[in-house]
Amino acid sequence: MEYTSNSPGQTEEIGAALAAGLKPGAVLAFTGDLGAGKTAFVRGLARGLGIAERVTSPTFTIVNEYEGGRLPLFHFDMYRLGSSEELFDIGWEDYLARGGVCAVEWSENIADALEESCIKVDIRRGSSENQRTITITGGDPA
Hints:
This protein is of the alpha/beta class. It has helices spanning 8-19, 38-48, 84-89, 92-97, and strands at residues 2-5, 27-32, 63-66, 73-77, 101-105, 119-125, 132-137. The chain is globular, with a radius of gyration of 14 Å.
């Protein structure tokens, strides 16, 4: 499915809509340029899951955990990881076993560790400053 967003708010709305159909153990693999809107999309996911906490980029912490919604949300940023081996060192399998939603930014850095069944979310800049093209494939997103 392909969507066009013209603002960070619209990107969040698309994320919130996707969250409604997510099941325990869902993995979302994000790709897109720096500043494309991956974290905005995850903010929408959190809202769609009923999480009231403020969502921030986990660039320096690698993973942020959000509880209190329909499902827990584990927000990963793989930008600083050099390989999928480092992902397993931080407890990836434990996060998968907890039955939440794993949202993985910069997923291309650990692609060999992701299942084929993950939902892929690619966010690219559009023709205007705030426009984004969001392509969602794989998994069972809705």
